[in-house]
Amino acid sequence: MKRIAAPLLTAAITSTLAISAHAENYPGVPALEELGKAAPALEDYTGNLVLGEVWKRPDLSPRDRSIATLATLVARNQTGELRYHVNFALDNGVKPAEISEIITHLAFYAGWGNATSAASVVASVFEERGIGEDQLPAADIELLPLDVETEEARETAVQKNYGGIADGVLKYTTEALFRDLWLRPDLAPRDRSLVTVSALIATGKIEQVSFHLGKAMDNGLTKPEASELLTHLAFYAGWPNIFSTLPVAEKVFEAKAAK
Amino acid sequence: MKRIAAPLLTAAITSTLAISAHAENYPGVPALEELGKAAPALEDYTGNLVLGEVWKRPDLSPRDRSIATLATLVARNQTGELRYHVNFALDNGVKPAEISEIITHLAFYAGWGNATSAASVVASVFEERGIGEDQLPAADIELLPLDVETEEARETAVQKNYGGIADGVLKYTTEALFRDLWLRPDLAPRDRSLVTVSALIATGKIEQVSFHLGKAMDNGLTKPEASELLTHLAFYAGWPNIFSTLPVAEKVFEAKAAK
Amino acid sequence: MKRIAAPLLTAAITSTLAISAHAENYPGVPALEELGKAAPALEDYTGNLVLGEVWKRPDLSPRDRSIATLATLVARNQTGELRYHVNFALDNGVKPAEISEIITHLAFYAGWGNATSAASVVASVFEERGIGEDQLPAADIELLPLDVETEEARETAVQKNYGGIADGVLKYTTEALFRDLWLRPDLAPRDRSLVTVSALIATGKIEQVSFHLGKAMDNGLTKPEASELLTHLAFYAGWPNIFSTLPVAEKVFEAKAAK
């Protein structure tokens, strides 16, 4: 990697991604040059390869990359990095209401403590940027219409496989997840799938990727987007999680292409 | 979800679970309404679904739920949430001596750094609540009697499978785990199993669940308790870990029923 | 376990491992007796079993143990413990330049946020100990020579398996990993392998261990070292990750012995 003058993380982003002025002053976020005090090569890869090249690749928008990155950080409980990426997500066009729903979604898909820890960070960024509860979706809200046929088929299949093993799990999968959470309107089903798939890959739950990557593509995630998502997550979830995902993705892509 | 007036996490718990006055004042723990500043739906699900409903379901006691939740948080290094749940566990009847042994047990089953990080949080809660070392089990203590036959069968099987691969691992599995740690008297074997199974599920070590869930049932965990444990952990360890566990649990339940 | 008088973590280490005077004063690191306020048994196991016995076992040097421990903590984002172990690693002979490269290496193998969080801790230890950027490898540096034949065989195999699935992943695997990162000279290939294998085991990516453990042995890690690494990591990555690794290690050891 060539090393260029990249004095501050925020400055590097401003010049390469042309994000808003907010990026120049994310409170509480260390500057890129801080990395150089421990690892000059890490500073260089971060500024020039990750922020300067990967985030600008086509096929996945900066907004989608921010959603995938937030999901990764929340699923792995990386609250240190989260402050930067909540700010960056807002500057990349992810709406406060969407961030709010991402956190809530991940309570179920990554664990309750992950979501509540993340909520503290998000609340403090929202406060710094003057984002009030009026911009956030209420708890009680009109839900999207349910695809009754698909959902009843899912319930029947799961009941047949696992009825009597953990009935509480099946009950809340139906009542809280597929007939409530997934129908909340402020995060599109395609984006909930993007969050879910990213969280699964980030936490190494590869055996669950097949179902959710297929569902993501049914919900509108294109193959080029899914493919580029793997490239993006290689950096944020680590290479080993991606190499474990590649054979699963291959089968999902083949199955979708055969339709 | 309906949204009710649930001003503070501690107040919600007091009203729904009738825990002690300590809950009204857990030092350093953010209030439930803080969640609402990032995600009103998360505040609502937390107060009404998780604390208001899941924790009150039959088949698993609040004490056992607290043990499972502590194990999850320690195994995942979620020290932020841990402060609340150590307090909550004490209010739910988990003894200081048991919490002390849970942390020590998880050093071996989740990793040393997880236990030492957790110890800091636990030590500070103990200090706030005036719990001294006199309430904690000493390092050197009279052990429970060993089931020699079962342990020798285990040693023989493991030696046969893995002798010569990592003899230090086998040595300490015998000396430190099964002839020492598991025999420490201040956490019952059934509860050590509850901790171990919860930690395995929480960290996605599904391939190790079969052995330890079987052992848990041998140690006295009932099938309704194990089943409800999966429901509880769906919320704290995330849905994907539970769906990966369901087929394993099914086989263990079948094997126990066939006896 | 017998309990001996082990008043401070740093004192215990000084007496048992004869490390440098730095160990007596690691700023910001809690003393071993702090553990005893939560769990006297954990204090005892830490001082007498882990630090007093495991770290002194033959077949794996304290330096290598420190590298494996750093990799574990960074891969699991355990920044709390990291401060102690960066200091301990320096006292065990791991060079600042090596620590710098370990962090950078793990950005790719454990996730970007893990490395940047670790970099903050490392930077502050370096500052406390007066280690300046002049002791760290520059981003732009002359690389080790490439083993063209092996690398081209790898590229061909991966392209054949996964071409068209995520071409960005394959591109950066070649350009950023095997033709750049792995060739940076300040961390030997054998040590990069030690870091990679430790990170895989620490995060439960067992399905990726076979390739990297084999590569580690090709890079010079001996079977006794690899075997003792599993014993060391049992304590730092937790028993379940090691028991899942044992059958994989067995196959790799057999394959290498058959050559």
TrEMBL record, chains A, B, C:
Coiled coil: none annotated. Keywords: Signal. It holds the Pfam family CMD. SUPFAM superfamilies: AhpD-like (SSF69118). One of its GO terms (molecular function) is peroxiredoxin activity. Residues 1-23 form the signal peptide. InterPro entries: 4CMD/NDH-1_regulator, AhpD-like, CMD-like. Residues 40-122, 169-250 form the Carboxymuconolactone decarboxylase-like domain. This is 4-carboxymuconolactone decarboxylase. It comes from Marinobacterium lutimaris.
